[in-house]
Every structure is written in C-alpha cells, then in structure tokens.
C-alpha cells in the first residue's frame, strides 16, 4: 500500500497559553496538490515546521512518506523541500553557492550540486543573478530564489508557505506555472496561502484550519457547493414588501436595488422552485442571476470566531 | 563518498569559506594584536624582566599568546556562526536537511577548531619574527592545540545556542574567556605567585592549557602535561556530548 505523503494524527503543540495545534489529524496523498487555509494563528506554519523539525510536537504523530518526523527525521527531511514564508537565506554567499550548500546538506556531491543549483536558478528565471548575494536581489527575485532552494534537492514533497505573498500578478502566475509543473511531474505540494483564488485555482483538496484544528477538508468545488449562493431575481414590478418564500434551501430574502436577492443553498437547484413560487404569488420574473458562493465566503463562514460573532450579534 | 560524509564536508566547507573569505575580520586582527603584544611585552618590557624558567620573557609568553588566540578564535567562530544563523534563521537550511545531529555538531566544531589552529600558526609565525623556539615536544604541542581548539569550538556551540543577543557573545568572550586566560599564567610563572594564589590558579583550566602548549613549544611546564592532556580530553568529550544533546533536543534551534 502506498504511504501518504503526509499523515498527522492527534498532533498537539502548545506555546504557553496558546494551543497552536489542537489534536490535528490530516492526511495528504502522494502526488496531491493540497492547500492549507486558515486565518493568521490558525496553526498552518506550526504544522509545517513540525514536519521539517523546526517545531517539536507535544503529542501525536506526524509522518512523511511513512517516516516519522522525529524518529526517522533524516529519511523524512530528505524527501522535503520547503520554501518558508519568511526569508531565511545565508547572506554570506552568492546565491548559487547557497544552493550548492543546500544540495550538499542533502548528500549530493559537489559536481552534481553545481548542476542542480544552475538548473534550479534557470527554472525560476534568475540564473543571470547567480553570483549575486541574496540581499541584493529584488523582492520578486527573493521569492523565486526561495523556491529554487526548495527545488534543488529534488524533493518528493514541496512545502510552500505563502509563496506568493507580496508578489506582483505576473510573478504569481510564473510561480504557479512552476509549481504546477512540479505537481504534474509527481511532486506532492503542500501550499499555505491567504489568496483564496490561489487555492481555488491550484489545489486538488484544501484543509481549512482554525485555532490549531482542522475544520474541514474537501475539494474546493465541494466546499463551495456547501456555501450559500445568492440568486438575484429581476421582477416586472418590484413589491413594496419582501415576498415570503416557502422554498426548501432558502435562508434569506431581501429587496435590493438590483432586485430580489435570495440567499439559498445550492442556487442552481433551488432557482426553479423559487421562480415557480414567485409566479404563483403573481410576480413576473424578468431576469435571473445566480452568484455562486466563493471559497472565500465559505472560508470566512467556517473560520468565523464564535465569540466575535456573538459580540457583533449583540 | 557516502551521503553522511558529503553532508559533513559541505557544512565544514561552508564554514571554512566563511572565515577564509573575510581575512580582515578573522586572521588580520590576531596578527596585528600579537605583533603589538610581542613588541610591548616581549621587546620593550621583556628586556627588563629577564628570564623565567631559563627562557627569555618573549619565549615564555609566546605559548600563552598562542593559547589565547587559539581558544578565542575557535570559540568565537562556533558561537558566532551558530548565533548569527539563528538570528537570521538561515541555520534552518541545515536543520531542515537530512544531516544527522552528530554531523552538524562535528562540522561546526571541526571548522571552528581549524580556525583556532590556523590562528595559532599565524601567532607562532609572528612570534618567530621576534624570537626563536625549539619545539622540543611537537607531539604535545599538536595534541594540546587540537584538544583545546576542539574544546573551545564545542563550548562555542553551547554559547551560540544559549545567546539570545549579540551582547551575549561579547560577554562570554571579553568577560569570561579573556580574564581566565590572563589569569592563566600566560604572562607570569605560577612560582612567582604567593602560595595561596598559586593554588587558586590551579582551579583555572587555562593554566593547564597554557602549560601544556608551553611544554610543547619550549619544554617548560609547572604541571604534568599528561595529566593536563587527559583532563582536557575528558572535558572535551563531555562538552561535545552536551553539544550533541542540545542539538538533538533542538535547544535554541527548534520551538
């Protein structure tokens, strides 16, 4: 049986009063493009750092390709390439040497390390900067370099922690292309991002995390299907009062400048019933616009802080 | 070459390149400082002091200055490289690699010991401009230099892991190491001290190092060199074991 790329079970980590990981269970299959979404402080980076040995878990187990991240740390780390959110690059050396060193730490001999370093720099498009030190690169080049460093050991699992944070649209697309190529070639990708569009576009499955726990894991489309869609109906004559709609799945009805806005689960399936109900009440529907719930809305719904919500409601 | 060796040599090479490419920060200062020491203590003051243990004052202080340079640089190298790597997080490139904890410790300590030995040779070279030494016990000289630079490389690793600010490095080097060396019979003979202070000095580990190197270089010692070497070797093994445990536990490295 093929081992999953990542298998975490009952993972716990506490920093003082903060429970960073709270009994986290998560499995990422080999070859998958997996997204980790969550607000700041949800535990995403703590989870990643647990996998690579920068955080020591309090309880639970974590395995990478079947290797325990603490007991078999050498085997586990040999399979991981990580591009962290914060820049953590050796400033003493030109970037090509930094890559050679990284390859060497993975046991790759000098000649091959040089070749790999050159290939990695070419892949991310900064080969002409190979003799430059990291500090002298532009912000976008720094992001590219951090990805190159993650690639230089030819990892089976590529972990990208906010890889496109603060980069322009063009670079973001370039990075997506590189990451997609890696995934197509069989590399498992674990991506954390604040850009929901990025997860929607790239990931096979996403996990939504909050307060160190896994809230949900599903394909982006499945998650969006669970959200409430907005159906905006144009009526020949707008009523003075909001019509009452006794249709299954409808959660809210509101009169707006655009028309009658109906919030409902599964907008496409519910719309015909809504139209029939309105026509039965004597209204003539002149237009229909179904606005699907975005992953962002689903994400916000799932990670909304209950206490905060209560305060707002009060 | 197997994977372990490649990993170890890569980190050693990285460490060596770091200090070799910055000679103005690493090798020039001990050359200048010791040239000044030899000029002032050896030539100007030394002529008024006369001989100690049958050797000129310059010959007598040379081994102590070699020890001072060797331990300062091996300690400073290990503590700085680890602390700086932690401060800027780039040590994570090593920590997230499949290198074993043992290899990491061995690489940091080896490179630091090498820097200490290079510094020793430079100080000896400068000293030879001012005086001559016969090196009657070269095996002891080499053994003591290897042990004390390894020991202080190992202590530097602990210092680098413990430090949470640059001030810590200064405190350790200037306020702990240097006083111990200066009161470690570098510039005087224990016989010249009152009996009480001579006995107290024996609690200072630097005394054993200085006497060991002095025995190797000029054949003079006030302490049995074999005992010194055995105690220092044992201490080195203990310190390296602590280094390994700290790395394995992620002290100062992992959360």
From TrEMBL, chain A:
Residues 6-236 form the ABC transporter domain. One of its GO terms (molecular function) is ATP binding. Gene3D superfamilies: P-loop containing nucleotide triphosphate hydrolases. Keywords: ATP-binding, Nucleotide-binding, Transport. SMART domains: AAA (SM00382). InterPro entries: AAA+_ATPase (IPR003593), ABC_transporter-like_ATP-bd (IPR003439), ABC_transporter-like_CS (IPR017871), ABC_transporter_ATP-binding (IPR050763), DrrA1/2-like_C (IPR025302), P-loop_NTPase (IPR027417). It comes from the Archaea. It holds the Pfam family DrrA1-3_C. SUPFAM superfamilies: P-loop containing nucleoside triphosphate hydrolases (SSF52540). PANTHER family: ABC TRANSPORTER ATP-BINDING PROTEIN, ABC-TYPE MULTIDRUG TRANSPORT SYSTEM, ATPASE COMPONENT. This is ABC transporter ATP-binding protein.
UniProtKB/TrEMBL annotation, chain B:
It is found in: Membrane. The chain crosses the membrane at residues 27-46, 105-133, 139-163, 196-217, 229-247. It comes from Haloarcula argentinensis. The keyword Nucleus does not apply. Pfam families: ABC2_membrane. This is ABC transporter permease. Residues 21-250 form the ABC transmembrane type-2 domain. Keywords: Membrane, Transmembrane, Transmembrane helix.
